[in-house]
Amino acid sequence: MASRPCDVVSRGYGNTAGAINTAGSSRYFDSYNYPPFLGRAVVLINDETYYEWESVQVHLTIGDPPSTFQLTVSEQEPWPEDWAFLRIRPGDDCAVYLDGELVITGWVITRQVYYDANQRSVQIQGMGRTGILGHVTADTATNEIKNLPPMQITQQIAGNAGVATATAGSMPNNKIERFSITPGQSCREAIEEVCRAGGLKLGETKHGELLLIGDGAIGPGGELSTAEFTQVIEVSEKTRALTEELARLREAKKNFRFAREQHDQDETISDLLADYYTSRSH
């Protein structure tokens, strides 16, 4: 179970708007500085810690949220206890950490299980909380929003879907006289339309908030130069390094298992030969 010890490091960044108000959501710590988080890809799901992954893919992006992840575990021996990975279900609340740093807050989307007589594998896929915007309609009673700047229109649409917003850089102050929502249009589509009109880019914070990126946010002296943007750059390196380390450990484990089995087999042959020569001597 994930604990809440005193050596947890909490770091904020950017201009966050607080915890997401979706029912059942959790606010995770920004980082953990103790095992098993260090040097691993760790996922917290329903307060359970999972970190024995065979492959790790984490995708963070500016301009095309949500963040996504895909993790795989496989083993040629029976899993311990009651196959703990099978307790993970689509819709479970989760947070992804790389080397102790929070990178995604969201949900499990799919859990696929593959198995045969010799091997069992589980693949977990998930997304950040802003992913819900593509699956919820932006419809309102009038389907019109009047005389508001792009940031406030976006906040209103995202808020109706239970997603909080954050900003980086300067936000345009010009008001949109009338913004019309097409019946059945998703929140994501409506927000993209507003942001195009306001010259804003979209992203997602590590806490699952919709990030509105304005002028001056990216580049020397920009808010994202030392926060989300740096994280987007560094996460690919962390993922690559962790994946390579996992592959190395898996190969070492296989080699150890083969050597152990070979050693056991050699001992068995030696015993048979010893018994054979013993019987001949008598």
What would your notes on this structure say?
With 282 residues, this protein is an alpha+beta fold. The chain has a domain at 134-219: Baseplate protein-like domains (Phage tail protein beta-alpha-beta fold, 3-Layer(bab) Sandwich), CATH 3.55.50. It has three helices and twelve strands. The strands form three sheets. It has a seven-stranded antiparallel beta sheet with strand order 2-1-5-6-7-4-3. A three-stranded mixed beta sheet has the order 9-12-11, with helices on one face. Helix 1 runs antiparallel to helix 2. It is elongated and about 70 Å long. The chain starts with 40 loop residues before the first strand and ends with a helix.
Any key phrases for this structure?
282 residues, Phage tail protein beta-alpha-beta fold, alpha+beta
